[in-house]
Model the fold of this input.
Amino acid sequence: MADILALHRTPAAPRRPGSGGGEVAELVRKHGLVGLVKPASEHVVEPDGVGERILPVLPELRTLLPGGGLRRGATVAVTTDGPGTTSVLLSVLAGASAAGSWCAVVGVPGLGLAAAAEFGIVLERLALVPDPGPDWPAVVAALLDGLDLVAVAPPGPISAGLGSRLAARARQRGSVLVPYGRWSGADVVLESTGGGWWGLGEGSGRLSRRELVISARGRGAAARPRKATLWLPPGTVPPPTPIIEAAPLLEAAG
Amino acid sequence: MSRTLYVWCPDWPVIAAGLVEGLPVHEPVAVMAANRVVACSAAARAEGVRPGLRRREAQGRCPYLVVVLDDPARDARAFEPVVEAVEDLVAGVEVIRPGAAALAARGPSRYFGSEAGAAERIVEHIAQTCRVEAQIGVADGVFAAGLAARTGRLVPDGGTSDFLADIDIAALDRPELVDLLRRLGVRTLGGFAALPAADVLARFGLAAALAHRLAGGRDERPLAVRQPPPDLDVGQVFDEPLERVDTAAFAARQLAERLHARLAGHGLACTRLGIAALTGHGEELHRTWRHDGLLTAAAIADRVRWQLDGWLTRSGRGPGGLVRLRLYPDGVVEYAGLQLGLWGDAGEDRDRAHRALTRVQGLLGPDAVYTAVPAGGRDPGDRIRLVPWGDERGSEPELPWPGGLPAPSPATVPPVPLPAEVYDAEGAPVGVTARLELTGVPARLGTDPIAGWAGPWPVDERWWAPAEASRRVRFQVRLADGRAYLLVLSAGAWTIQGVYD
Done:
């Protein structure tokens, strides 16, 4: 697993604090602070020691998110284009839910809850509002007050003003807003960009494991596009050699 | 919501005084506590005596009034034979207070043919064995059933909230809250129930939120009642058997305080109290008491004392005494009000989440917010039960379900299965024979080519009940573009029941 992750992770180019020039750099060099002072954008919490402002995620997703987890107050969107998007949504919620966070999913009546439990989401701490009606922004705002993670599928296109109001609410209350669908102004956007199912033959076998390639783009510390591969169910290891019968599935992987 | 049958003996303190002390209860009798009338006989009521009057006023209205002092222990003692009479006929009787008991109506109404039949049978049996008049009310939930019993009504299934709507707010029996609500212009239970639940909780607190649920006819589920862990019991073994009521009362108080402290340590409060005892003769005694609100230490002690009093003074059990006593919380609710985290621990998170979800329920209605509970079943849709937030979650299944689909489960389960069409390579629809043979090889789902499939996996559920029977076969199908579906063929029609999304 680790080597697969390493393939998708481009090592950050080392940046010398002095290279940009200017008075600050001069000061840093003169006082022997080289190597101690870093630009703010390079500040990353250790992926293993999750900071208290960061909600944990599944280990495979740590490389996708700035800070190695879901920063409280952030907006992490999941797109709904292409297959595998519901699994991406569940995998975003899974790590934090297993670690004790409370989650809500608004406006997704068809969410497969048996699958959610298999991802590691604790159903006792998962609230569902399948049909929030036209007043859904008020519902989301109320949930952001009390829950750590609020996933919402907006019923249609939303105005930029509404999006930024809800994002501001999340920032103010220290919750993570996870829009599931079209959303402008998210800090990170997660997308399912490939993968496929393994184990099903011509009249034999069963869907036994799947590969899910998730790519992330965003702004700020998350501006550089990244990719990660998640094997499901959790704990599955990738097959040692590609299975021939399933070859067409890999068309979009990587 | 469970149908509840409520047995109520009117003017119980008076009847109990009559049974124990031989007073003529058909003449004006009043039971006094702290110089106020707490109960009076029908004859006294006819003379104008009312609960709450001072002794002198009462005697002024009815000069030949017989006055007895109130004694809750006497009431409880006299009520024990009545409870036993009810138990002769039905199981699972819960004592609410001396003079009132409740039981689930479903079993007796089936056994005796109807709710009315069961009620008639119980009243008759009580009258024959104890010479006590009882009235019966049936409604959804104990609170509504208690009000129905005052008029001897059997409220039809589903009519409980209508029945409650016109009743005066004083029926809540919470004087401070009722007084406040009256001053706010809320006079009936219906009016109180119409207030948004979230606002009631925010403005009046947890006790009022409970009362609000009662007023709306939803009292069977005041809060998420859950099965308590077994180590909450408290018990004591007595070297000297308890034979006298006063020593029993002393033991009861100690045990009650220990139970209450233990529950508070877990952030719980008790709504249903079980009392079990072992007599010197080796007889096991057992009784459950229930309460609308949360039982305090003093309330637990009172109930234990009353119960022990009833057991000890009943004829035929005197010399044995009680050698072991055990209290166990039969129903507990999480009551965070008893316990606050010191530095914002998990309890605070839970409280915040509960408040937010209660507010959403206030916005959208109680049935708009759900939580999921694993349930037994073979298809992804059956394996999860949605429960409105705040209701009892119930137990999770442990038995294996042969024929269940293996993990991973589909990430999307359409609330209504989507119709689908499956064709073979020649374009003919694919079906399955009675011997589970395919009529063709699935090649296309609608217009999309199928790259892999497995099945048919048959299920034949509840074939013994024609109305609920379901006979179907399941398939997993993978399309060439990577999408995967769970298809179900039932009665010749294909549907998509899950998307492996």
Remarks:
- Chain A touches chain B through 63 residues (CB under 8 Å).
- Helices of chain A lie at 2-8, 23-30, 85-98, 113-119, 136-146, 160-173.
